[in-house]
Amino acid sequence: AQSVTQLDSHVSVSEGTPVLLRCNYSSSYSPSLFWYVQHPNKGLQLLLKYTSAATLVKGINGFEAEFKKSETSFHLTKPSAHMSDAAEYFCVVSEDSGYALNFGKGTSLLVTP
Amino acid sequence: EAQVTQNPRYLITVTGKKLTVTCSQNMNHEYMSWYRQDPGLGLRQIYYSMNVEATDKGDVPEGYKVSRKEKRNFPLILESPSPNQTSLYFCASRGAPYNEQFFGPGTRLTVL
């Protein structure tokens, strides 16, 4: 079964500095990978997805992620953090069927002024 | 507007009192699922449904039931809720394999 590991449970950055949220996956084949964001007291919103096209994926709000098969990683980055980026971020892998999702445990991003 | 709706959004109940959380989607999606979210554990799948009258257990199905009599609706039933089912619940739907999964706004359940 596919699984993901988010390497940091909490990340704190200053406004205007780069963001790096790390995610490693395990899969027996080339998986579909997603990043979702959850703002406080809100539902989940898709940031971006990788489905075996370009390895560098651009998402909403200036986020992007790079699929690295050799490192089994799918790290999320943003060049310059904004206060509104403070949220919980989930790295997600699609199961073999393509339907079910396996979620990482989440990374809480704190952005300080 | 394409969306997944859940009701109620907030619910406080007592141990043993049966409850149902409704979920409905207007995107004609075949696949629907329920998750629970607990601090430090991410989202864990409770049940899923590949189509009408086709449901199956996810990772944490104990204490829950579901039904899928219509394509758009996928209610979650707690026959005898217990305090360890206090959680934030999300319903989701998906139209095709490997595509984006759309989530409802969540239902915060407290069982006393």
Question: What can you tell me about this protein's structure?
Answer:
The complex is a heterodimer of chains A (113) and B (112). By secondary structure, chain A is mainly β. In chain A, 0% of the residues lie in helices and 53% in strands. In chain A, the strands form 3 sheets. In chain A, strands 2, 5, 6, 10, 11 and 12 form a 6-stranded mixed sheet that branches. Chain A is globular and about 40 Å long. The N and C termini of chain A lie far apart (41 Å). Chain B is mainly beta and 112 residues long. Chain B has no helices and 11 strands. In chain B, a hairpin with a 3-residue loop joins strand 4 and strand 5. Chain B is globular. The model of chain B has no long low-confidence stretch (mean pLDDT 94). At the A-B interface, strand 6 of A face strand 4 and strand 5 of B.
Main interface: chain pair and counts: A-B, 22 and 23 residues
Give the radius of gyration of chain B.
13 Å
C-alpha Rg of chain A, in Å? 13 Å
Task: Give the assembly state of these chains.
Answer: heterodimer
The number of helical elements of chain A comes to 0
Q: What is the number of helical segments of chain B per DSSP (H or I, 4+ residues)?
A: 0
Shape of chain A: globular
> What characteristic shape of chain B results from the CA principal axes?
globular
The share of residues in helices of chain A is under 10%
Mean pLDDT of chain A: 91
Helix and strand sequence of chain B: EEEEEEEEEEE
Helical content of chain B, roughly?
under 10%
Low-confidence stretches of chain B: none
